[in-house]
Amino acid sequence: MSQLRLLPSRLGAQAARLRATHDVLAFSCHRRSSGPPATVLSSKIGGGSSYMEEMYFAWLENPQSVHKSWDNFFQKASEEASSGPAQLPSVVRQSRLAVSSRTKTSKLVEDHLAVQSLIRAYQIRGHHVAQLDPLGILDADLDSFVPSDLITTIDKLAFYDLQEADLDKEFQLPTTTFIGGSENTLSLREIIRRLESTYCQHIGLEFMFINDVEQCQWIRQKFETPGVMQFSSEEKRTLLARLVRSMRFEDFLARKWSSEKRFGLEGCEVMIPALKTIIDKSSEMGIENVILGMPHRGRLNVLANVIRKDLEQIFCQFDPKLEAADEGSGDVKYHLGMYHERINRVTNRNITLSLVANPSHLEAVDPVVQGKTKAEQFYRGDAQGKKVMSILVHGDAAFAGQGVVYETFHLSDLPSYTTNGTVHVVVNNQIGFTTDPRVARSSPYPTDVARVVNAPIFHVNADDPEAVVYVCRVAAEWRNIFNKDVVVDLVCYRRRGHNEMDEPMFTQPLMYKQIHRQVPVLKKYADKLIAEGTVTLQEFEEEIAKYDRICEEAYGRSKDKKILHIKHWLDSPWPGFFNVDGEPKSMTCPATGVPEDVLTHIGNVASSVPLEDFKIHMGLSRILRGRADMTTQRTVDWALAEYMAFGSLLKEGIHVRLSGQDVERGTFSHRHHVLHDQEVDRRTCVPMNHLWPDQAPYTVCNSSLSEYGVLGFELGYAMASPNALVLWEAQFGDFHNTAQCIIDQFISTGQAKWVRHNGVVLLLPHGMEGMGPEHSSARPERFLQMSNDDSDAYPVFTEDFEVSQLYDCNWIVVNCSTPANYFHVLRRQILLPFRKPLIIFTPKSLLRHPEAKSSFDQMVSGTSFQRVIPEDGAAARAPEQVRRLIFCTGKVYYDLVKERSSQGLEEQVAITRLEQISPFPFDRVKQEAEKYPGAELVWCQEEHKNMGYYDYISPRFMTVLSRVRPIWYVGRDPAAAPATGNRNTHLVSLKKFLDTAFNLQAFEGKTF
């Protein structure tokens, strides 16, 4: 930008030099012609006066730029001019007059260009000098430098080759600004004043990086048009009342519970009217459902004054004598969520507000909110997001520091993940816990990550409530009109420490000295309105007394609450799901098989292309023929079993959504749920959506290359409705490592903390195949360690034990060894009378293993999921002769069967598969062990001893066997890495533990 003022003169000089060079070449070509240069050129170009003028202009600027003969000619002409203009040759005389006229015109043009550059400079960089910090001690962009192209002092005019005398000149305004309103011209002084008023006061705008002219023009019009930020007396009174509620709520908590952590909103009380403004404006434009996500700071205030939760329920949370919740462990009060339907008093329209419960893990809730919003839009048929929207509240340090913020932004415009725009509100305390922002981020603002998706960023001084409210109105309109994200950066301060017990003076002494002197925003605004006559002091005091009375009355009622029912804090109620005709559902699960004609029909569609003139890849043709053959033979492989599970659920009205990296084809090229026309770009076909005339929709979508964000999104999606099967597949099982936060904080603990049932399914490819540590293990030990079933509690085997055990667990962990069991467990997930997360360790090599196939007989009506698959060969027919019973799970079963056959031990060794690992199938394991009373018990796994399943199953075997019979471990030795990357090493270790598994003397003489 610093080069702009040089461009006009530089370009002019360069053009003149180019023209002069052309003249010299032309002259050189005709040097031998008779007559002076002017005559020669005149004969060459036919008159040549304009040509002569251009030559003369070039000579005036630089005599060396023309041929020497022209230099002599113009020098002589200039000397002759001393005797008067009449003595000048006519062409030179005309040129002198033209030079004078052109110089004036050039100056006028350059001045107008300079003014346009000046306007653009304010639009681009004005936010750098805006007065954003309420404390007046910090620069919001962490830099006190004033851009040299902003006119902050008279001497800066020189940057644009303007003088003080130019300040009162009138200039034509370009179409890229609205500062003139209805006027087309303004004086330079007024132009600068209006630019400073728009861009350098309490609002700092970042939007000029947006590559859409229409969007930039829209923002300019919203902020540059004179008089746009006007408020009626009624609007000001409403804003004051909202500030009163925001501040007095915090004051009330501080008086009643001075020693309790509450993560108050002091210093950013304006956030309450800000959120309410966004909701009001959105409701006015047709929004009916708003889903919010936010961290702990200010959460109680939002619950009270935005969601409008009963105050006594909030105050009840502070009761030290609070009895245990009626279900689950519960959570701290500033983690809880809420769901509330009410009338919006500004628009008199119904509005549903949902605040999603979340842990302290900073921005982890962001993708969860987006997924829940997407689901609500999907089930309402709200493809454009005109009925349902999301608002995300962030802290400044977390917004800049947490990678999931970027992952969530990167989902914002993807077809299967977009929520058609989110309003982001950043509570910019200008500090982390104790960390100065100057050592906490590398970007000028904490909000710079939003620039990646061309989201406009509105910085605003939080001590100017009217500026905040106006910015929030514009943000809500932007989201509604352009269906894109927008960021409101509330530059504020934190009046207390990170929590109310913390001492901030240890690390920020100067900041907090100023904060202690800072007049609260409520008093500032009240004084302003009283001074201008909008309210009286008495009215202001009555408003305060009115809300204080509301709080005191609610406080009195809260003491009558003996038990807090955590169900009052649900953020995703499922009306009618848990009850039938007012009665709780029976704890039973119907058989998960389906009629054979349904299986056949699905198989036929899965092996065909429903669209005409659709050319598929030749290799895919072979795959489809293979599916057709299997259907004819009444068998399924893994991919077809999955197809049939999904298809049968679609027939029953269950929406199925499968998401993850490359899930449409499948990482291992086995699924092919989306067919691509080989000759027409972007023409695709999803046969699953052509199964039945009135089926539920099937959504399969390749995701962004993200695990944390996408898994959070799918978790949120699964919250919205219990009547959907929502699955996330990791490209490889270990890829869930980067989504561990979602797994730990939401999936494994969600029901215990927030009574939130969730049926999300994780598909995690797993298996030791010599493919290296990063492409082998889905880390089953982690999921089993987080399972809540008690290894030492011997259960009572009631008739409904299988289902009640599932109800009591926090999640279900399975490793299926057959396609049929995979089919059943997917269907069981929906047919259960409740919802639990389901973790499935899925295969890789078994996808095409010739033995890993199932018959229709194992999937038809009357069949169901087998938690344990017992031995069904020769050993089962003579159990008293069996010397060893091997328990295992997953792929290793096929290695064991092959080895047993090669050693001829089919009658002496039985192999039993645990398909459901957690909750542990105590009853079925007990039956199997008792069936082979003389057999030595072995647990065999392909994972290393310190990984996999052994540490989980071992104590549970001891419990079910009353610690009478030992169970020996066979598998790989303990290791640091989950797998080797050397194929030969893998095979050697495999052979070693298989040999041990079938060495019937291996454990003789050993004690346990």
From TrEMBL:
<dbReference type="InterPro" id="IPR005475">
    <property type="entry name" value="Transketolase-like_Pyr-bd"/>
</dbReference>
<keyword id="KW-0786">Thiamine pyrophosphate</keyword>
<keyword id="KW-0809">Transit peptide</keyword>
<keyword id="KW-0560">Oxidoreductase</keyword>
<feature type="domain" description="Transketolase-like pyrimidine-binding">
    <location>
        <begin position="636"/>
        <end position="849"/>
    </location>
</feature>
<dbReference type="InterPro" id="IPR001017">
    <property type="entry name" value="DH_E1"/>
</dbReference>
<protein>
    <recommendedName>
        <fullName>oxoglutarate dehydrogenase (succinyl-transferring)</fullName>
        <ecNumber>1.2.4.2</ecNumber>
    </recommendedName>
</protein>
<dbReference type="Pfam" id="PF16870">
    <property type="entry name" value="OxoGdeHyase_C"/>
</dbReference>
<dbReference type="Pfam" id="PF00676">
    <property type="entry name" value="E1_dh"/>
</dbReference>
<dbReference type="InterPro" id="IPR011603">
    <property type="entry name" value="2oxoglutarate_DH_E1"/>
</dbReference>
<dbReference type="InterPro" id="IPR031717">
    <property type="entry name" value="ODO-1/KGD_C"/>
</dbReference>
<dbReference type="InterPro" id="IPR042179">
    <property type="entry name" value="KGD_C_sf"/>
</dbReference>
<dbReference type="Pfam" id="PF16078">
    <property type="entry name" value="2-oxogl_dehyd_N"/>
</dbReference>
<dbReference type="InterPro" id="IPR029061">
    <property type="entry name" value="THDP-binding"/>
</dbReference>
<comment type="similarity">
    <text>Belongs to the alpha-ketoglutarate dehydrogenase family.</text>
</comment>
<dbReference type="InterPro" id="IPR032106">
    <property type="entry name" value="2-oxogl_dehyd_N"/>
</dbReference>
<dbReference type="Pfam" id="PF02779">
    <property type="entry name" value="Transket_pyr"/>
</dbReference>
